[in-house]
Amino acid sequence: MTFADKVISLNRHLTYTGGPLPNGIRVMNPYRESEQANTVSEAFYRKYYSDDQSRYLILGINPGRFGSGMTGIPFTDPKRLVSECGIAYEGKVTHEPSSVFIYEMINAYGGPGAFYGKFYINSLCPLGFTSIDEKGRETNYNYYDSRELQDAVKDYIVDNIRTQINLGVNTDVCFCFGTGKNEAFLRKLNNQHGFFKNIIALEHPRFIMQYKSAVKQFYIDKYLSAFAAVQGF
Fold first, then answer.
1. Which of 110, 124, 136, 216 has the most CB atoms less than 10 A away?
2. d(C-alpha 126, C-alpha 61), whole Å
3. Uracil-DNA glycosylase-like domain spans which residues (predicted)?
């Protein structure tokens, strides 16, 4: 099986097997909720991962509603899927700030073909969560936003990391998007289970776009330097 075959199969069978969720929190599974997410993500992985090469693993937090919640591809919203990856998307073309940063960084690296030939992005928790307020409005919810949810998904996250490793990624280094709670949680799990020899944390794209957009190029350069260092450039 190619790397693409493995990822596509994993996504097609992805279900939530963690503990009971807190009241008002639901699981967001684009591969069960949208056939288009399956179609476009399969096209994406076949385009960039149809080989048996190992990649460096990058782990984000969990999917968001307007990015991978729509496309099934981490940090890739419908706009970037069409404009940067050349893959057609039907319906509402949503915009996610994290995806904007990621594809500016990817283009600075050399483009999607070059980047995805070396790196594979997923998340500590491969499925997303949303909360619904008293007015029925739905918002993203991170796995660490409550201790109850974090405890419920801990074993699920451990299983997910093992599953991602079994795709054939490099375990000498794992990159972590998020230098706060996401990094702390991953490091704690890594100390317990010894998944990776080293973890390199980088500021989360959403944080950069929300709070550091004026110096965005600094963070693009920081990402590129971190990636180049492990590849011996």
1. 124
2. 8
3. 48-226
